Structures are given as C-alpha cells and as structure tokens.
Amino acid sequence: MTDPAMRTWTTADGLTLSARDYAAADGPARTPVVCLHGLTRNSRDFEVVAPRIAACGRRVLALDVRGRGRSAWDPSPLNYNPAVYAGDVIALLQQSGIARAHFVGTSMGGLITLTLSAMRPDLIAGVVLNDVGPEVGAAGLARIAGYVGGAPQVASWSEAAAYARSVNGEALPGLTEADWERFARRVFRETDKGLALDYDPAISEVFKVAPTAAPAATGPDLWPLFVAMATGKPLLLVRGGQSDILEAAVADRMAALLPHMLRVDIPGVGHAPTLEEPQALAALDAYFAAAA
Questions:
Q1: How far apart are CA 137 and CA 221, in angstroms?
Q2: Rounded CA gap, 113 and 83, in Å?
Q3: What's phi and psi for 84, nearest 5 deg?
Q4: Among 86-95, 100-109, 216-225, 235-244, whose mean pLDDT is lowest?
Q5: Dist CA 173 CA 270 (whole Å)
Q6: What DSSP element (H or E) covers 242?
Q7: pLDDT tens string 152-182
Q8: What is the pTM of this model?
C-alpha cells in the first residue's frame, strides 16, 4: 500500500490545515473523493478506506478538520462549526484545482457535507453519509457530551487502547485487542508530555452551545437541505444497526424521501461504523463502481 502524500492548504482566516492526499491509480480520470471525519477524530480514520478508493482510479483527500490531527488549532473556539469547516473544504478544493467531488462524511463530516451543499451545491458529485442524517438522536448527543473535550491521563499505548475501548467499546463490540491498539493510534498522538487525544479540547466549547457543532434534532429543519443535496445525485447511507445518533426511523424517512439512496445497516454496531466492516466496504465498492 502506497503511503499518501501529506499536503497543506491555507484557510480564509489564515490557518494552515492538513490532508492526506492519495493518488489515483493509473487509468481513466474519475471524479475525486473528499473524506471528512467525525467530531473528535482525524484523517487516520480513512487509512484503510481511502487507499481502497484510490486503487479504483480516484484521487482521495482525507482531511484533518481544523483543530484535529496535523491541522492548526483555532485560537477562536467558536469557529469550530460546520459553516467554517465547509469554508475550509472550499478553500482546499480551490487550491487543489478540484471543481467537483464525491464526499464521504462520518457523523460531523456528513453534517459538514450538508452545510457545504447549501453553500456550493456545484461541488457535490455524490455523497456517502456514515451514520448521520438530518436529525441527530438526543441520546447520542448526551453520550458524546459526556466525553468530548476530556483529557485522559494515559502513559502507554495499552492504556490509550483501554481508554478508546471504554468510550467506543459498546458501539464496536467486534473489535479485537489488536484492533483497539490500532484504534488508539488513530485517536491519540505522542507529545513531549506523553500521549494525548489528537484534537483541540476547545472543540467542546462550541459543542456546549450546539452539540456536535451542528444543528441537532431541536434545531433548524435540515430535511429540505438533505433532499436538495442528493436529488439527482448518487447517495449511500451507512448506518450502525444500534446507532444512537442516526435512529432507524430517521434512516427510514431518508430512504422514503430519496428512493434512489443506497442503504446498508451494519448489524451489532453503534455510532459510528468504521467503514471497514465487510458490509460497508462492499457498499462503498458498489457506490464508487457505479458513480461517475
């Protein structure tokens, strides 16, 4: 597997952000793909999925959203919101010469895509939503609020893996000890003081104002935006079968409104699927094989 190039770009407000840039395999040029991670995660979430997509002839950009991974932390925490994130994506596409892309959005990444579609619908070629929709489950929001911005004290990778399992184990019961070790290396970073979660704890500030830094079930109606985003464009929904963020009734309504939507529910998995489950990989393969 070829390692991605690391590239940076500059946002409208002067921050330097980072993305993993996976070159497309040789062959006819196909529409590129942008991968957007969840609230407390980073581009390493796509280290299996992104090269798989690139091998099919698509350039893939997996972003570290501002405040995560190798991207700069924002000195103004209230900028940690979907409108600002979407503006950052626009800047990256402009600086990369990309006029149109497919978007793979996990949780917050899907909400960023929804926001982007309202700002620049011309940029959206198609969308994969991973465990997120126009309404966000209240129980899931409460659960996330309980840990976002926390600063666990861990002294070793085994302790980091134990912490990751304590937060995500119920949602991902099928992961092995080796899997949790890999998981920990995605969400923690090494610092001069030891291991730390790889995001700015200040993202919790805007979360206190608007959970997940985006409209929730009690906020503005996102259903018209969802329909407008995907009408006439390919759409895949991946849902954890036990998700507390994307409830089954919401997914059912999404399917009813857009009958062309492909949907796969991952049994026994909560929020959010890793996209490395066999069912998710098969659905992604089918989506990208059929899409322009």
A1: 14
A2: 10
A3: -70, -45
A4: 216-225
A5: 9
A6: none
A7: 889 999 999 999 999 999 999 999 999 999 9
A8: 0.95
Cα–Cα distance for residue pair 136/131, rounded to 1 Å: 10
Residues 146 and 127: beta-carbon distance below 8 Å = no
Return the pLDDT at 215.
42
Token digits for 28?
A: 């006819």
List all residues 6 or more positions away from 203 whose beta carbon is below 8 Å from its beta carbon: 39, 40, 67, 77, 80, 148, 149, 213
DSSP element (H, E) containing 291: none
d(CA 72, CA 225): 30
At 14, phi and psi to the nearest 5? 90, 5
220: pLDDT strictly greater than 70 = no
Bridge partners (DSSP) of residue 194 are: 191
Under the banding of pLDDT at 50, 70 and 90, the label for residue 209 is: low
- The answer to whether the beta carbons of residues 228 and 125 sit under 8 Å apart is no
Contacts of 111 (CB under 8 A, 6+ apart): 82, 105, 132, 212, 214, 215
Domain with CATH 3.40.50.1820 in the chain: 5-148+206-290
* CATH 3.20.20.450, domain 5-148+206-290, yes or no: no
Please write the tens of the pLDDT for every residue from 83-95: 999 999 999 999 9
| pLDDT band of 2, cuts 50, 70, 90 | low
Confirm if 58 and 32 have CB atoms less than 8 A apart: yes
pLDDT at 214 over 80: no
Tokens encoding 38: 């969840």
Q: Of the candidates 40, 41, 50, which has an alpha carbon nearest to the alpha carbon of residue 20? A: 50
Alpha-carbon span 290 to 292, nearest angstrom: 7
